[in-house]
Design brief:
single chain, 569 residues, mainly beta, 16-stranded parallel beta sheet, nine-stranded parallel beta sheet, 45 strands
Length: 569
């Protein structure tokens, strides 16, 4: 068999310029050695025996009595395994199935389930996991489940580097003490399913670190395409570490995923896009959702208003976004957080059929960020109003009324700005009179302001009361009327801070909140007003009255802010 070369595995290679001569080969590949081993063509064919050459020799599943034996042989020798077209029945878990590389069009069958070792684009493989399963099971059927989602993620490795076909991981009900992190790329979306529950019902597939010390439940990075449905993650409390975390050009779809009682519920980073359908992020120490660096969010697709996402009870922010994040928050219900929404560094968001209420701050916008409340329920006029303010918008940011208008109305909040300030030196002092006295005026709102819901005027006053003979009244004057009043009790000879905010609920409808930190406590007040700002400009002012001329009232400083247009603009 002179001039015939048989190459087995990666045992020997020649550089392209080197001739295949005995002097350049090991003794076992010399012409004499090969002629002795394979004296004729028939012996060569017998030796190769259906093997498939792809640089090295793959083992062939048809050479073995069953699928498990074929996998065992390939695994033992570090070979890939070829599955010629056909069905290969299996009666139980196949050890090391996922530690061998596979080729061919064959399929493994067990308990009415088909698994494709080398799937085509349209074929689907499912791996099953159950807390009662085993880390050594192959996961091909519910009867031989893996123990953890991380076992399935590990199994993907030998089907890559990019998964072909459709891959599903089905999680049985129960608690998974797990940290499943992957970098597995795929042609199609990898889906992770817990047991199906109705929309809004707590999932029964639960990730909890228990005593493992794990810091995350599920995550990954770098061009991943993953969906998660009917799964809950809880009690991942490592500071600054999210329970669910995906970064760097990923495409993630969450459906009825719950994050409860973690430090951070969800984090999405670095040019990743994500979709949320009917999810819940609640009672997390810091953030319900944290977005960083050019993230695209989608709370819009798939009937968001009928299947809303809830962000509630989070210690700092319902959804925090920083640096060029954008997208819709349609249908989201955001309440009982310190900040419902907090955008900074050029982030944007749209809200349609969104509810933002009972937070301390409804929407906080910083550093050239904006929010478009196309239809938002702020619960104005109810006990569920955002308790400090529905809007906290610094000057470079904006509250855009309607991005679809040809021109945005000049009265729609273009960021909070200073209408006027008052800080005399020495401080203003009122004493010796019980006549209502104008302390200062701040400037005029332009006619037509406060027409759109969410616009506001805010007055902050710092001062002190001297004497205990009678009360002192401090009024927020809106035009020629008193919009809000705080009465400082007679027995309060101390410094105080007063804040008034008048919010628009639409044309001709406002609500005024008045509060103070005076001691003893003075109850906050809420009163509805019906000022028609379309008739004229409105002068904002501050007035004070003493009940007893022997007392005194000092005003150290006052500031008036608004989101609306000023008369001189």
């Amino acid at each position: 068999m002179t001039d015939r070369l048989l190459s087995v595995g990666n045992d020997f290679t020649l550089r392209p310029a080197v001739k295949v001569l005995d002097g350049n080969l090991p003794a076992r590949l010399s012409a004499a050695a090969l002629n002795a081993a394979y004296p004729d063509a028939a012996a060569t064919a017998t030796a190769l025996g259906g093997k498939v050459g792809k640089g090295d020799l793959s083992y062939n599943a048809t050479d073995y009595p069953n699928a498990a034996a074929a996998v065992a042989a390939a695994y033992a020798d570090g070979r890939s395994l070829h599955w010629p077209n056909g069905a290969y029945p299996s009666t139980g878990t196949i050890p090391n199935l996922h530690k061998v590389r596979h080729t061919g069009n064959g399929r493994i069958t067990r308990d009415g389930i088909t698994f494709y070792p080398s799937p085509t684009y349209a074929q689907t493989n499912t791996l099953y996991a159950d807390p009662a399963g085993s880390t050594t099971n192959d996961g091909l059927t519910p009867g031989a489940p893996m123990k953890l989602l991380s076992n399935a993620f590990s199994a993907f490795t030998n089907y890559g580097p990019v998964l072909q076909g459709n891959w599903i991981v089905r999680l049985a009900a129960g608690t998974y003490n797990d940290q499943a992190i992957t970098g597995q790329q795929s042609i199609n979306r990898i889906w992770i399913y817990g047991p199906t529950v109705a929309a809004g019902v707590t999932p029964t597939a639960i990730f909890d670190p228990g005593t493992t010390g794990f810091t995350k439940a599920i995550g990954g990075s770098d061009y991943l395409n993953i969906g998660i449905k009917d799964v809950k993650v809880q009690n991942y409390l490592t500071a600054e570490v999210p329970a669910i975390d995906f970064a760097t050009h990923c495409d993630i779809w969450y459906s009825n995923v719950w994050a409860s009682g973690n430090d951070i519920g969800f984090r999405v980073m670095n040019h990743t896009k994500y979709r949320m359908d009917g999810c819940v992020s609640e009672n997390n120490t810091q953030y319900g959702i944290m977005e960083l660096f050019s993230v695209v969010r989608d709370f819009k697709t798939g009937g968001a208003t009928a299947n809303p996402t809830y962000l509630r009870g989070n210690g700092k922010v319902g959804i925090k976004a920083k640096e060029l994040c954008t997208g819709h928050l349609d249908g989201a219900i955001i309440y009982d957080n310190m900040h419902g929404i907090h955008f900074s560094r050029s982030c944007t968001g749209n809200g349609t059929s969104t509810k933002i209420y009972r937070n301390q701050y409804g929407v906080t916008l910083r550093n050239q960020s904006s929010f478009v409340p196309l239809s938002v329920d702020w619960k104005f006029g109810t006990a569920d109003i955002n308790t400090v303010t529905p809007w906290d918008v610094e000057g470079s940011s904006s509250f855009v009324s309607n991005e679809n208008e040809a021109t945005v109305g000049k009265f729609s909040g273009r960021g909070e700005k200073l209408l006027g300030s008052f800080a005399p030196d020495p401080a203003y002092s009122l004493t010796g009179s019980t006549v209502a006295t104008t302390v200062t005026s701040f400037g005029n709102l332009r006619q037509g302001s406060l027409a759109r819901a969410g616009g506001y005027v805010k007055l902050v006053v710092i001062g002190s009361k001297g004497g205990t003979a009678g009360t002192a009244t401090v009024d927020f004057r809106f035009g020629g009327s008193t919009a809000g009043t705080i009465v400082i009790p007679a027995n309060t000879p101390a410094a105080f801070k007063i804040e008034y905010t008048i919010f628009s609920r639409g044309p001709g409808k406002q609500t005024v909140y008045s509060s103070t930190d005076a001691v003893p406590a003075v109850a906050s007040q809420r009163v509805d007003r019906t000022y028609d700002v379309t008739l004229s400009d409105y002068l904002m002012g501050l007035r004070a009255t003493l009940a007893n001329a022997g007392d005194s009232l000092t005003i150290n400083a006052a500031w008036c802010y608004t989101t609306e247009a000023l008369a001189d603009e």
